[in-house]
Amino acid sequence: MTAFQRIKNIFIAFIMIIGSISIVWIPEDGIPLIVLILSMSLTLYGLKNIFYYFSMAKHMVGGRSILYTGVIIFDLGVFTLTVADNSNSFVILYMLIIHMFSGVVDILRALESKRMSSSWRFKFTSGAINIAIAIAAFVAGYLLKSLSVIVYIYSAGLIYSAISRIITAFRKTAIVYIQ
Amino acid sequence: MQIDFHYYATYCAAFLAGYSHEECMDICYSAQFVDLCTETFLSRLGAPLSAATTQLQLELADASSDIISLQNITRIWSSFHFLPGDLYAKKKGCSKRYLNKYRLICNPNGELLVNTVKRAKNNSLQAVGIAMHVLADTWAHRYFAGTPSLVINNTDRYFFELIPDGDRCFERRITFKPNPSMTDNLNESIYVNSLYQNKESSIMNLGHGRAGHLPDYSFIRYKYLPAWGDYDEIIKDNPSDYLHAFTQMIEAMKYLRGEREDFVADTYDFDAIAPYREKIEAIIKKRQLDSSRDWKAFGEKLSGCSIEFFNVNKYLKEYNMATPKEIDDTFIGRFIIAALGQKSMVTNAIYKSGNRLAGFSVDYAKKGFRGIADYRKLLDQLRRADDDSLSKN
Fold first, then answer.
1. Contacts of residue A56 in chain B, CB cutoff 8 Å?
2. Dihedral (C-alpha) B37, B41, B42, B43: value to the nearest 10 degrees?
3. Is pLDDT larger for residue A152 or for residue B86?
4. What per-residue confidence (pLDDT) applies to A32?
5. Cα separation of B276 and B298, whole Å?
6. CA distances from B73 to B211, B335, B375 (A)
7. Is A172–B95 a contact, with Cβ atoms under 8 angstroms apart?
């Protein structure tokens, strides 16, 4: 990892921590803020795809589909921003999918490790927690209609990602070459 | 390639190169072990994780898409399964980012292959086995890169199998299905591949995943449009490539045994297989998903000895029972050192070419030991070799 990539990781991590604290601080505005973050992410992702087409994918057989995808996602990002006032279901669904998917992958991975007599408990626990979070998001969002729980879960996820980025930024990564 | 070629065919090539049955077993075991030495396996032994030579599907699924994970993936797959053919390849009008990926495309007879074989000279049989795995894969996996890349490794609907029919052959469109629970259907040319993901660095775009297991079958011939190929069709002739891989392995192992003065790229020992060529070609061209049984029978006929079935746990006990002083001299210990050496050499070459996709490499001779602690094993080995040569003098 270059020094720039390390600094970038730390910088993004701090932004994420500040963002998550802000969301918790003003939970009544939490959902619109989350939607703002998600729509910004979609818009940036669309732009990233368009840039990816011009820098790389135009050399690829069938690469033009990347350009179309980029334009559509960019459009979707802008559209999401316009419906920010009425988007609770969107946020809850997002949380459900993300955590359920991570949980299932973690548990499958833990079972594979267990079959190979390798350490598996940590992965299993992490998978179980992710699934529990997905269930919590479903119960809180759809059944109890308690949006503050959703806001707290999202903030905790942001802080976790930020801490992972900081740890990554400080890891030793170079390979030693000995002739 | 799969166990049929990496284990049984490598045994046959080693025997034809002049190794004894016992030496052949160590070489082919090591060649096959490259496909099983994962971080999960190593963590079970408490061994250095940097020595991993492959990744399980779930390890890949679990890997995050951050730069460090991508570099780790690239180090493993480029060093052991998709050795780059030309790290200084040129392509007009493309960005540096594209070029870095393009330069990792695997191809046989590159400078890195020569270095891989030469590195195994005067080294352990485990190092010989690893080198043979890498060599063989340069033929099977050519045209794909050992790094996740949509723009290099993607394939599209233009994919046809060329099926022999007497002196001619006919074309049949290949249907790919991204369903891992399915098995390949040779009769209808329906094959499993990885799911299309439009994200450049998705693990679905690693190596030949998008072309399924086709590069791993010795019998198959097919034509397709590689993502990087500017709409030029490529005909992949596996029977020819596998025969070249086999004869190049014999040539390389004759060099490693000291029977040849030098190992030169693009050199094959067709003379060594002349008495058996028909038999070997028949095995290679036989339309089957796994040719282990045929290679095993051929190898046993060659050497007159029984080739035991591959058992991944064969050397676990020896490794677990060894004292810290003995551990590097066990079978797995020697394999680990050889794997670290190969990974370190390939990463350094990629890094020196100005490409950071495999991460950073610090040359010990110039800057001392600065990097991942696992590689200290290479330093210890160097010191032991120095001590041995001093005590001999």
1. 94-95, 97-98, 101, 151, 200
2. 160
3. B86
4. 75
5. 9
6. 19, 19, 17
7. no
A1 and B370 within 8 Å at the Cβ level: the answer is no
pLDDT of residue A78: 85
Which ranges in chain A belong to alpha helices (H)? 3-25, 30-55, 64-82, 88-115, 121-138, 147-169
In eight-state DSSP terms, residue B88 is T
Q: What is the mean pLDDT of the segment spanning B220-239? A: 94
Rounded (10°) angle between helices B331-352 and B67-80:
110
A65 part of contact set with chain B, CB < 8 Å: yes
Instruction: Give the C-alpha separation, A6 to B80, whole Å.
Output: 28
* Contact predicate B252/B114, CB 8 Å: no
Contact B174, B277 (CB under 8 A): no
pLDDT of residue A166: 85
Q: Report the run of H or E that residue B303 belongs to, with start and end.
A: helix B292-303
pTM value? 0.81
Query: Contact at 8 Å (CB) between B209 and B197?
Result: no
Burial class (CB in 10 A: 0-12, 13-18, 19+), B46: exposed
Strands A175-177 vs B361-363: parallel, antiparallel or unpaired: parallel
Does A117 contact chain B (CB < 8 Å)?
yes
Length of chain A, please?
179
Query: A177 in helix, strand or coil?
Result: strand
The answer, yes or no, to whether residue B171 has pLDDT greater than 80, is yes
What is the tens place of the pLDDT at every residue in A22-52? 878 876 677 777 777 778 888 998 999 999 9
Q: Does B61 touch chain A (CB under 8 A)?
A: yes
**B186-226: pLDDT as tens digits:** 999 999 888 887 788 888 899 999 999 999 999 999 999 99
